[in-house]
Amino acid sequence: MAGPLKGIKILDLTSVVMGPYATQIFGDFGADVIKVESPDGDIMRHMGAAKRPAMGPIHVALNRNKRSLMLDLRQPTARETLLKLAATADVFVHSMRPDAIERLGLTYDALKAVKPDIVYCGAYGYGKAGPYALEPAYDDMIQGMCGMASINQHLAGEPRFTPTIVGDKVSGLTIAYSVLAALFHRSRTGEGQSIEVPMFESMVSFMMIEHLWERAFDRENGAAGYPRVMSQLRKPHRTSDGYVCMLPYTDRNWKDFFALAGRPDLAAEPRYATATSRSQNYETLYATLGEIISGNTTAHWLKHCGELSIPVAPVNSLDDLFSDPHLEAVGTFFTAEHPTLGKITQVKPPVNFSATPSEVRTLAPRLGQHSQEILSDAGFTPEEIAVLVAAGATAA
Asked: Domains along the chain?
């Protein structure tokens, strides 16, 4: 059964993680995603150990349900080819800096001239109106600038990056929902538009949901930063034989937890009796919580807190995920046969649609694998394709 975006064609001029993550979501949802790559290919093709050249693990994880078209956009014929393709597309997404996309002549105005209702998305490091607009931006820079590395100083004693490329992935999700909103607008009005998705601003928006804190009411003098999540005591708690994640949340949770621990007196303690008082005493509350948890086993807390509906969970390693019973039941990890790589493991799309389920139709393509197929679909004759191939503008 077709996904909800069947019939939508995406021209994808993105690389690394932010853009490809977004366009893979579109592909999983049924869109025809054409990944346009330079003769060298997306840099992520070359990162990490790989069974075949230019087929690295992050590329394989980010580029299923796409077709690869190699175009050397330094050549005018390749640019004209791309514009002809754009006339048949619904969405154009790129992740180049503003000056680079302008040099190529692939601005919104240029695309709109060939497809007036196109949805055009520029994924940038920084918004075009600001002084950082032309600066290079990768996840490390953005984690530093948005405050994420700084708040880790509360835990590690120095600024630290979060060990996942969260800036890329949050910005990729921002691209996905923004493009879908623009397609919804077009379906109602017939009007396309240009979208700007900057990583820096996307991550500041993401971070400041909770960390705006007192500055929400006193922008000049209020303290920014949500104290609970910056506490060194907010962490997986050591048990007598391991670790456990526990977060009694409601008044009932805390009352039940203190009773389970044999400390009903703490439930009556004014500092811990209400959500408001607990929020003002996180440090002593979490210290008390940790002290109590250390006195019993992980299995004890998982069993008895689970029975009382007190939020509790084990601490999984990355390797543990492959044998997690819930993930096994819902089929999160699956094995597929790639035509050149053999058996590979993939993570299925997490969203379930009742009427238009997403599916993995194709696995990550080789560089330029579908070039001639895509050009033929767009109306190029065999002779025109042969000229492009002879010039090196596209792949043989």
From this structure: 9-206+330-390 (3.40.50.10540), 237-314 (3.30.1540.10)
